Each structure stands twice: as C-alpha cells, then as structure tokens.
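Quick one - inputs below.
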Amino acid sequence: MGARGIIQLKGIAKSYGAVTALRDASLTLEGGEFHALLGMNGSGKSTVIKVLSGVIRPDAGEIRCDGQAVAFASPADARRRGIVVAYQDLSLIPTLSVLENVVLAIQGSRPGSRLDLARERTLALCRELGLTLDLEASVGALPTPARYQLEIVKALAQEPDLLVLDESTAALDRNQVEAVFALLRRLNAGGLGVLFVSHRMDEVMRLATRVTVIRDGTTVASVALAETTRERLVATLVGEDAQPRPASPVTASGPGPTDADLAVEVRELSRPPRLAPATVRVRQGEIVGLGGLQGQGQREFLRAVAWLDPPATGQVRVGPRGIPIAGERRARAHVWYVSGDRGREGVFPGRAVWENVYAQEIGIGGPTRRIAERDLRRRVIELLRRVRVVAQPTQPIETLSGGTQQKALLGRLLTRTPELVLLDDPTLGVDVHSRREIHDILRELASAGSGVLLFSTDDDELLSLCHRILVFFEGSIIHELQGEQLTREHLVRATLSPQEAS
Amino acid sequence: MSTAYRAEVRRVMRYPGTIGIVLLIIVAAVNAVLQPGFFAMSSVSSLFDVALPLILVALAQTLVILTGGIDLSVGGVLSLVDVFIVIAQGHLGFLAAAVIAVALGGLIGLMNGLTVAYLRVQPLVATLAMSFVATGVALLLLPEPGGSIAGSIASMYSTNYLGLPFPVLALVGVIVLWWAATVRYRRWIYALGGSETNALRNGVPVQRMRVWAYVGAGVLSGLAGVALTIEVASGDASVGASYLLPSIAAVVLGGTRLTGGHGGIVGSIAGALVLTIISNIVFFAGIPSYFQTIVSSVIVLAGIASASALIGFDRERARVPRRGTS
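Output:
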C-alpha cells in the first residue's frame, strides 16, 4: 500500500453542454478520514466522484495528491493513487463470474492471473460481511443486493488507500448495511480512508468524522462532525443562509382544485421489492409531484401506473367514471407517459419532427394514409408555434436540442388533453430556458383538465409546479406536502427524515 | 441426486461450448450412419484438411465478437492472402510469402482496430469496407483465377507427423499460440465485451484492447488464408467470400454471444466442425452440388436460430423482470 496522503480537489468546474454540474467544488481528504459527502439531488455529488475517480476530466480546477498537482486521465490513474470507487450503478461485468470480476479489479492495468490472491481476499471479505457468494456464479445471475455487496467486496479487495462509496448501501437491508459499516469502521481504524455519499442522515451522524456539503455544484461547507449538529447540516443543505430562489414562482402551487373530478385513483399499487403498496388520488387539473431521494420507488410507481412494468397488486382507475387500467392496451389508450430519457424512451431518431409528434397516429413503421399525412403536417406547424419550437416539421428530430425535442413531444399532449399524464424526470439534461417553457406547457396542460403525476430529480421543479408533493422513501410514500409546506426546507426535511411525521 | 451432482450439471449447461459440442456429436453420428468408415483415421484427417481454414477464421471471429465487435473483413483477408502467396512464392519461396501474408492480415486487422476504436466507426461498417479493400487489392493482383503452389507444400498438408495429420498439428499449434497470447488479456477481452463502461472503470485500457483484438483476428485470418491456399493450391481473388457467413455461424453455434463477453474458442472449433460435417452430409446424401450451398445455409440459419433460442432460455436473460414477481 502506498502512502496515505492528502487528496485535494480545488475549484472544480464541469458542464455538460448547457447544463452546469459543478461550479466551484472543493474537497480535502486527509488520509484515514471517514468523510461524508452530502448534497441534495442534482447538487453535483456524483460529478465530484467521477472527477476524483478519473471517469471524467474537469473543465477547470485542480487535483492534488500530497500537494502535488496530478491529472487523472482514466480510472486506472486514480487507482494508481490508491483511490477505488464502489459505484452507485456498479462496475461489475455481468458475463464474468464473481471471482473473475474480483481478479479483473485487482489486476488493474497490469494484467495477469491473480486467481489465488483474489479468491483468498474475496472469501475473507465475504466472511467479514457474513456473505455467502458462489465464486463461480455468473454476476448476471446474482440478485441485486448481492451485486451491491460484491461491488464493495471487489473495491476492498483492491486494498485501496481511499475507498469511495457512492450510495453503495442504498440497495441493502438494515443487517447488510450494519455489516458493511462494521467492516468499514474496522478498516478505517487500520488506516483506510473512506469517502461516502449517503442521504441517510443517521448514517452520516453515526459514522463520519468530517462532512463536506455541496449545493448547486459548489462546496458550501466542510466541517468536522464534532463541530456541527444535524440541524445545522440540514440547514446548510437547504441553503437557509442563501437568498430565496427567484427562479421558483410560488404562484403555480396555490391550492389545487379540491372539488374537481378524479383524474386517477391508484389503490394499493405495489411491485415488490422496490414499491410497497401505494394509494394516490389525483384530481383533474392537479399536478402531483413524486419527491424524495433518487431511486426510492418513484420511477417504479410511475412505470407501474403506466403498465410499462406491470404492478403485482392494486388497481388504477382513470377519469371521473373510473375506467380500470389493467393491461397494456388500456394504459396506452388513457395514460400518457413522457420520459426524460429521450434517447431511449422518447424519440425515434432519424425521423422527422412531425413524425415524432404524431408517432401514435401514423404508427411509425406502418402504412401511412396520404391524406392524413398532409393534414398532420399542416397541424404540426401550428402546434410547434404554440409551444414555441423553431423547427421545420420535416427536419430530423435529433437535430433539435434535448429541451426542444421535449417541448415538441409535450406540445402533442396539448392538442388532446389526456386524462392522465405521467412525467418521468421530463427536464433531465434540459437547459434553464427550455425548462421554464416546459413548465409553462405542463401548467397549461393541467389547467386544461389533465391530471399530472410528475417525478423529478430537481426539487425546485417540483416546488414550482406541484400542488402536492408525495415524498418517497424506500418504496413507500412517507410524507405528503401541500400548501404552506411546499417549501424547499420542508421538502428537504421530509426527504431526509423518514421517521418524523410532517 | 446429490446437490453436488446437480451443481455440476448446471455448470456444464452454463458452459458456453456445451451447445456446440452437443451439436457436433449429433451431426457426427448422422454422418457416421450415412458414411460407414467416417471415424477412420483417414476420413477424420481429411475432415480436418477441409475444416482447418474455417476453424482458424472462426477463431478470428470469436476474438472480435468476444469484445463486442464483429469482423466482416475475414473473407477479404483470406482472398488477399491466397492471391499474394500464389504470386509471391515464386520469388520469395513459400514460407517467406506465407509469413508476409500473415503479417498483411495483421496489418488489415490493425487498420480495422484503429478505425473502430479511435475513429468510432461501427465495426460492421468499418470491417465491411476493409473487406472490399482487401478483395479489391486481391483482384488487382490477380484478375483471373490461376497460379499454383509447389506440390511439395500441398503434400506436406496431407502427411502425418508424430502420427497426427498436419492440419491437426497446425490447429494444436494455433491453440497453444492463442492461449499464450491471450492468457494475460483474457479477462480484459471478456470485460470489454461484457460492459465497456465497467471495463473502463476497472482500469482496462479498452480502446487499446479493442485494437489488439482486431489485430489478433487479422493474424488468425491470415493463418486461415495460408491453410486455405495449401488446400486449394491455386490463386483466386473470390475464394474467401464463402467463409464470411460460416465464420460467424460457427461462433454462434459454439455458444458465443454475438453481443460479446460470453463464450469461447472450444465452442467455435466445435461449431466449425459441425458446419464442415454438415456439408459432408449434404454431399453423401447425394444432393446435387447446386443445392448444397442452399441446404447448408438453411441448416446454418436453423442452427443459429436454435442456438439463439437456447441462449434465450439462459437464466441470465430470463431475469428480465416480468409481471411483478421479482
């Protein structure tokens, strides 16, 4: 093992196109620390970790190891400095066996067989975690929690100086988490540095010796845990010291329509293990947000309602007459689902704007009636003007920016006012300006009478649009915020405090 | 039934080469019924004579497919090597001509690899284009089929050494070479095909690895071309074209996933032998030669379809969540 030195990130900035992920992020890691990195959704934590691990190169700023400036061109570079990451979305090769995955990690950039060493370390670590893994099993066949445990085992088997855990415990149950932390604490006492990203305040308060808080891509605090309190940390996270955000007009989230007919009634909808039974009612004209930390079941809920991933139990009834949605065809007819992952779930690349907008009418790939086509081309011009998209109807959709694509697709909804619209992080990767226009479209949609369920990883988006926000935690709805409670502070507190009633 | 026994069965079933070996046993049995002396040394030997180029080209294909790519230039390389050896051996001698030809294969592989890894061209397009380049050069060198190689070389091919036919020895040699060349990088190859992003996160130099896979495939195709040249003993710029589809078919029959990261050479060798025996069966069943290509292609398609169906029942694929029972 190398020297357990000081690693510093200074003034790191990184943008993806029009979206700024990091403005001015700094982080100082002393050797042997148990350091927590805190930040709300979209604050830039993951980007910090990607910079630290050499996955991406920052636009500005510097990385120093023991005071000496270094450049991490690849994860292999970071690894040579003793930095190893257990990734939030895993770094396992599904087609290789458990053991092969560990060998792959241990050998790093110097290939060669280290089977015995890998087996020995894997078995030892598994024993410490009380984990029984078939070393020959293919990783693709492992259940999800086992994969997360293996990710941690694999990282530790490399005997790093600094272990970075990017929400690695989110998929584990209480006992498994305890076992991981017990092991980490022991290794930490032996000199291992740990940087962990976690949203669970309990974990942070219990384990960390130092906490760095990041907000809007900027490091806003870095303190020893002994010198702060939970309350103060939450206040820093929320940014109570900062100016109130002018970007969020409070006008939209007035009281929702209380006497309108139901747009949808979801009863006891579940999809184990990620979604516990959830009951939700949305009235016509109401925008209901799904909030909380990422990956707490919001997306599973939306996809179950849309029947994209059929629910295990429960009922969905749409419209004032309560038409039951059971099966894909019914869902397609009554429920509109718009994804922020436009590349995979939104657009047909290579097809014209108008074809994408009217994909359902013309049935891409199927026969097109000539008259209908001319009619649709004419109508699409009007529609694009209405959502302020400057584009030729015939130009390929991928020539538009992400935000413009999304506006065009959402504009489609305005012409038919569906009973229920489900939005899965619709403004993901969209610039500020288009984002505002998309919000206008959604408000217009609601005032025309659609019920809207909105999942967003952007808390400000939820706060500025929604009449009510349902806060998810580990697959259940744990809080419902409305009226006065629709503030950033309430939302953050509800998000971080599963045990307190709101 | 002990659980150990069942675990062993599961292991065998999960081994990617199992499908190819089972198919090989089946077609060998069918062939033995149709052709009595099939298992005699002489017919096994002649089977390997015919099969060697396909086996080598299937190994080339396996290497690239394991990394998640595909190499459509193998046929072009075969033709170019054949034509080059026939023309050059008169001046340089056979051995020198063959060595240069194999290096030529490696060079084409290098260009494939650089195009795919650094210019980010789809492997399908990059290697297809390279295939036309190679075939074009071959046609330039030898517009009309013709030429020949020394009879002594051709007879070497059908001589037994150490009691084993030359092609079998050559194959063993190539497998040993393969093993020596890939033992250190094997995991990188599989990791690259299994998940490029995660391979990178594990410190694998993915683009460099990718280039080497195409270079290796080029060299193996070059060796296949040498074997083919010895077998046909003449020059023809179109001789390699008929090896492209079978090279992919052998890999698929051998249980290697076309999406990469899973499979191996044992299955591919079995797959190549299966295809060779199928042509043999078609021949011995007395089917007119014009129909042979059609029939063997249909069988190939059926074989690929059934291999895909088998893979479809693979537990890993079956894990895609369905109807809320996860």
